[in-house]
Amino acid sequence: MILVRNDKFEITEEDGKVYMITYSAGFPLKEFDSILRSHPRFKLSNFSILKNVLATESTSLVEIGRWLPNVEAEVARDKMSASIFVYETHDYILKNKEKLTEQILETIGNEGIIHGILNFDISKIETGKAFLIAQGTQPKAGTDAQITYLPKPERKPVIREDGKADYYDMNFISEISEGSWLGEKIPATLGKPGENVLGEMMAAVPGRDFPIRYDKKSAYEVEEDGKTVIRSKIAGVLDDVKGMIGVNRHLPIHGDVGVETGNLEFNGSLSIKGTVTSGYTVIATGDISIEGAESVSGAKLIKSIEGDVYIRGGIFGLGSTLVEAGGNIFVKHVNDANLVAADSIHIGFYALGSQLSAHSIFVDERKGKIIGGRAVAKNTIVTAVSGNRLERRTDLIIESVNKQESNSIMQEKAGELKQLQSEIAEHEGKIKSLLPLLNQMSKEQIAAFEGTKQILAKLKADAVTIDREVKLIMDEMRHAGKEEIIVTKEAYPGTYIQIGKKSSLLSKIQKGKFLIEFGELNA
Length: 523
Description:
By secondary structure, this protein is of the alpha/beta class. Among the domains are: 2-67, no CATH class; 71-135, no CATH class; 146-245, no CATH class; 403-478. Helix content is 20%, strand content 38%. It is built from 6 helices and 42 strands. It has a 21-stranded mixed β-sheet that branches. Strands 1-2-3-5-4 form a 5-stranded antiparallel β-sheet. A 4-stranded antiparallel β-sheet has the order 9-13-17-16, with no helix packed on it.
């Protein structure tokens, strides 16, 4: 088929190839562009060949390009889209819409394109340019499992003033009734598969699944409306059990701890509506809340092994009271007492002549005071005032972390924890194997079985304690070098500031942040 013939050359097509014979050299290369525009199906191999052919007279055919089909389809590499190319002039396209439409549909059918074919206006197709003709359906990823837990109220004390008295209040005990909702899990979905333009199914990525964590001794799971719901087995108080939501046993005391109750020791949480009278002891594995407005005066020991202690009315220790917490201590004020917390101590008004020891110590930054005594922390001490105008000696001390020593202790604790976990697994195995035989046991065997259960409970309590200690050491190591003592209003002369091995006894009133700068204490 002859495409072009003039006095300079002749261009022909045969079997999809384009050939040229040059009669007379010298045809301008720039003018050849109009020939290409008028023949969109003519695809030139390269301009170098064309340049040589135009510059050389020859009677033999020279291949200079290809003759394209007037319609081509191209499937994307990912098979999620397909385009067509029409190699005809725009005038031809407008005059042959029906014919070209049939060709397009036939072409995409021959290429196996069967899904996502789009409606198209052929008049909008541009010569030789890709025109989207089919779009696959992308798979929809599944949604991740969604887990929601009953939030534990933030333990943040509030100081209220009504003109007559100051109250140090906080939402401390969250009572839970049997069967209460503790959390739920909406399961992950599989997602929706997709389909590419060739009709091949594209698998969806399922959502990620996550375990719902709860204490199986105090809570259980049940399927409700397609969700996994966690409910309480017992009535008690909302608690964190080894990092999992659970319910701790709760013993409410509606009056004072004293002659009528005797000393208290309880495996769970205690809420005391009154106070703890002089000489008496209260020990609990969980939280202890002493809610009476009257201060604790002269009590011997108040100790939470794993939880927090809250004393609404404050403490008059009379030099004999010790308060210990495996977590935090919250108290209105403290006079002549010993406070030791694994985590933090929070004091609403003042600490007078007392010994305070914790990871961090916070006395109300607006009007809180530490006067006399000794406050020792690992990370932070905050107070509005330290000491007084009489220059009473008041020690504010940050014990800096020795990283090497802490790392050694942490490794030792980790070893202990591993051993405990091994013993726990062993005792759990014994109990599990003996449970089916319980009805056949003698009294002595039942007593031994109960003894094994008590040992297991103690091992678990020890494991929780060591795990908390390891986490605190890790936190101390992360914050090493960032220790600070903050006095927002007045640090009076007689205030002794120490951070690590650097110390200073103040001789004039100061305030602000005391810390180590360039290796020296800035006091």
